[in-house]
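Changelog-adjacent note: as of this version, every example in the card shows the full chain rather than a window. The one below runs 191 residues end to end.
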Amino acid sequence: PEADVDCLADSQMNIGLCGYFLGAGAIVGYTDVVAEFRKVIANYPKANVDYLANSQKYIGLCHWFMGDQATALVEFRKVVANYPKANSDYLADSQRYIGYYYYNLKDYASAMVEYEKVLANYPNANVSFLADSQFRIMDCVRRTGDWEGALHTLKKAYAAIPANETDVIKQMLADNIAIAQKSLTSKKETK
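Full-length structure tokens:
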């Protein structure tokens, strides 16, 4: 029965999560943890899509933290491509890591495209994923030297955060708006 498959997939995924959160590398290696997450996908393909997507995401995270970002990129893309009906948090987080990949290569145009996909495709995802993506878009714009564009992006991010969300996120964005305004002002004064 389906309920049994979900129960088994959940149990298998939790074995992987235990290894991941209890110190992959210290207790077991990330390679062992990846094997546990792969078992979820291989052994329970008919399980609830969230078990499959989350396991796939953690495979990507394990590779990311092992320093193999190229393999992590492939794994994160699988989450987005293979599990489009999964929980939007799993999808948004995977999409963000695709953006991080390009950001780390200093390919800011490609990174921005990926961060914009988070905002466009997963508007109901965790607000911290959305705020981080918006912030990173600003940072990519800033790194290209477009301080006015960066300021515009920050203001857009600030306005998009619901009033009931944490003041910490809004304050972080407000602080960054002030920094961008100050940098823009000083750049204009030195011209």
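Structural remarks: The first helix runs from residue 2 to 21.
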